[in-house]
């Protein structure tokens, strides 16, 4: 694991934006659509999720990223970004990267733009990367976006994953500032362990199992996760990276005033906070309302009205995440002094909104009678 502390000057968050689809699905709609052998109570108690957002047909990750990026730029109110980093594991297409087209649609001209593929740790990887690039002098106003449409890769008949994920995007705009400023990024810790690459994966569709060749598994291009193993790794890795980030920032864990973890599972978030000694009154999240939005989850919590009302600028804030790869990351920062903006995504052409009863019809999968029952 690698960590860094930024001295004297650093990147300061001056804008925050969110892009959320308008369609809201409750647990009952997801259960009915996938004919899942589970219950609303089981999903709530095991994950903490009640609702999630879902994109309409034709709305892509790039559309969500554009909405969040525009909102963050509006929140900042200053000059245009001069670099764009997009964290996603559901790009608009395998090639090219989605970030350049997002930058084009935002009217940013020929600024550098690239994707970061660290799955659910992607936003913090991107935030640390943009902060380092700003610190080096390569840019002065990087825009960092986390965006994912997991509805495009999740099998709605898979009881283990169908109810977990929602679609969304969040973004922050950074500018140079002092380390004591509200929004200042103070320290970061990043890590990865490729020996666990199979625990969170979409095995098909890449160069190892190309789409044009017959797939050994007919569902190889859908998302798969080994939940029990992931839980153990997630808690251990997030705690370790959080402690390193706090050590580099010079903050005792008991002084953290805002804890925001990747919104994967409420039990994971509670376990990490408990091990760090951070009380419930300092934990913030929105998993109940939007589910697991992958790379978008942390900036969406930062943009959430409940979080904004509870925190004042300068509060000691700890961000931490774990994702496929395996990857993990933590960032220590001062809570920003900015008012977030939210925009709904829109495609470049009109489409009919997707209803919950059309979920299965928009995928190639068919319900399976062999799905397991709640346990």
UniProtKB/TrEMBL annotation:
This is 3-oxoacyl-[acyl-carrier-protein] synthase-3. Its EC number is 2.3.1.180. Residues 246-335 form the Beta-ketoacyl-[acyl-carrier-protein] synthase III C-terminal domain. It holds the Pfam family ACP_syn_III_C. GO terms for molecular function: 3-oxoacyl-[acyl-carrier-protein] synthase activity; beta-ketoacyl-acyl-carrier-protein synthase III activity. GO terms for biological process: fatty acid biosynthetic process; secondary metabolite biosynthetic process. Residues 114-194 form the Beta-ketoacyl-[acyl-carrier-protein] synthase III N-terminal domain. It comes from the Bacteria. It is an enzyme of class 2 (transferase). SUPFAM superfamilies: Thiolase-like. Keywords: Acyltransferase, Cytoplasm, Transferase. NCBIfam families: PRK09352.1.
């Amino acid at each position: 694991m690698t960590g860094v502390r930024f001295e004297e000057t650093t990147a300061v968050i001056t804008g925050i934006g969110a892009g959320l689809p308008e369609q809201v699905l409750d647990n009952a709609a997801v259960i009915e659509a996938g004919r899942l052998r589970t219950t609303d109570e089981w999903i709530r108690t095991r994950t903490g999720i009640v609702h999630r957002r879902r994109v309409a047909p034709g709305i892509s990750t790039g559309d969500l990223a554009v909405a969040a990026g525009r909102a963050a730029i509006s929140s900042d109110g200053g000059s245009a970004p001069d670099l764009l980093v997009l964290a996603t594991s559901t790009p608009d297409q395998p090639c090219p990267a989605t970030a350049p087209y997002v930058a084009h649609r935002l009217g940013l001209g020929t600024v550098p733009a690239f994707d970061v593929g660290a799955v659910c740790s992607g936003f913090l990887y991107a935030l640390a990367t943009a902060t380092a690039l700003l610190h080096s002098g390569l840019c002065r106003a990087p825009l960092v976006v986390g965006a994912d449409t997991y509805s495009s890769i999740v099998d709605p008949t898979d009881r283990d994953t169908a109810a977990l994920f929602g679609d969304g995007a969040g973004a922050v705009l950074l500018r140079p500032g002092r380390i004591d400023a509200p929004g200042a990024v103070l320290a970061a810790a990043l890590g990865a362990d490729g020996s666990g690459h199979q625990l969170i994966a979409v095995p098909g569709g890449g160069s190892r199992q190309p789409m044009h060749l017959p797939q050994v598994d007919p569902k190889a291009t859908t998302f798969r996760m080994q939940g029990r193993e992931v839980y153990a790794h997630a808690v251990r890795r997030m705690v370790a990276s959080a402690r390193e980030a706090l050590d580099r920032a010079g903050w005792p864990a008991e002084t953290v005033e805002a804890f925001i973890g990747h919104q994967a599972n409420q039990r994971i978030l509670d376990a990490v906070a408990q091990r760090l000694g951070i009380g419930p009154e300092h934990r913030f999240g929105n998993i109940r309302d939007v589910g697991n939005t992958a790379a978008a989850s942390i900036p969406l919590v930062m943009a959430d009205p409940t979080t904004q009302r509870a925190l004042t600028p300068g509060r000691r804030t700890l961000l931490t995440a774990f994702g496929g790869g395996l990857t993990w990351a933590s960032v220590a920062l001062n809570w920003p002094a900015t008012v977030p903006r939210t925009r709904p995504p829109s495609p470049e052409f009109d489409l009919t909104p997707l209803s919950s009863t059309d979920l299965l019809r928009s995928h190639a999968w068919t319900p399976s009678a062999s799905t397991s029952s709640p346990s």
